[in-house]
Amino acid sequence: MKITELKTFPVADAEGNRYFFVKVYTDAGIDGIGEVGIGNWGNAIGSAVKHLSDVLVGEDPWSTERHWQKMFRGNFFPAGKVYMCAISAIDIALWDIKGKSVDMPVYKLLGGPVRDKVVCYPHTQGKNLAGLVDNCKQVVDEGWKFVRWGQPETQGELEYQGNEGRLEPLKSMRLAVEQMSAVRDAVGPDIGICFDVHTRLDTAHVIQMCRDLEEFRPFFMEDPIRSENPASYRKIAANINLPIAAGEQWASKWPFREVIEQETIDYARIDLCIVGGLTEALKITHWAETHYIDIVPHNPLGPVSAAACVSLTMASTNVGVQEMPKRPGTFATDLFPQQIGWEDGYAFCNDAPGLGIVFDEDAAEANRLNPQGWVPQLYRDDGAQTNW
Hints:
It is a single chain. Helix content is 35%, strand content 16%. A 6-stranded parallel β-sheet has the order 5-7-8-9-10-11. By secondary structure, it is α/β, with parallel strands linked by helices.
């Protein structure tokens, strides 16, 4: 069996949600599907996929480690985030092919299940406090065991005006305390609260806010500061008494090295569609295990990312919770008529070959789009930009 072609699919589903998939074909009639983590960089990533195909076409898809090394460092300079997104999607697709070629689910190739299902958290939200509380109560009533939302914007009750928003730190910190207090009262003591700072605050601000939030016992504080300097997590970890989750913006094992070895995070937010696919995520997961750090894979994307993440978490001992914005099988069903399984707040991989999902290529071709774009922009009251 040899790789014959790689093809990119920047697409939208029937609801208008945007995705970027990569499909790998073989001469055995077996194909695999992967997903890109930063879709708004799609044209650059698409060019990277085309470039990487030069070293993959004609090769055995089973040689995932060899291909990973060649793609990552075969041009002497280590791959950056654009190429890592391409490598991630390709690697996931190759694992899908491997599973299909031996009629076995990917999670069994990764070592087999250590659990029957994986507990997940959704994305809860609301345009005001009452809306957030109502949404959190709704998902708990639906069976979810967790709720999650992000650092609040501060421009009235609307999240954005057009494509811009405001986030003034002190106001946002106060709103965050009000929100978590209200949500904890509404959902009770047994529901996990995941709070995403989303790299929007400075170090001093986030330390003070975390101290104010301690009484509400959040499950973790996600991305409390920006990701460029992992060493800065030492100061955060030394000054707060809440679990820290970080890593979704890190591409490859190397940025994880310091925070794992110095144990300055409690949960590793591995993004399989940015970090280098299943091949690299598996290494980081086992590395984290030696320091008793659980993984909470970042999954804000589509059905491929969800399937890859759950394949990993079903086969890994050190798992905290799995991000799952929406219940599998309730979105992008026009593109993926078969998705992973779901029951009462838990996801699981079906006992089907590969990732266990089915990609409708004809539907994808009919819904192609230009993958370039920008996320909404956030500014402080003085006009300075902050992170979205």
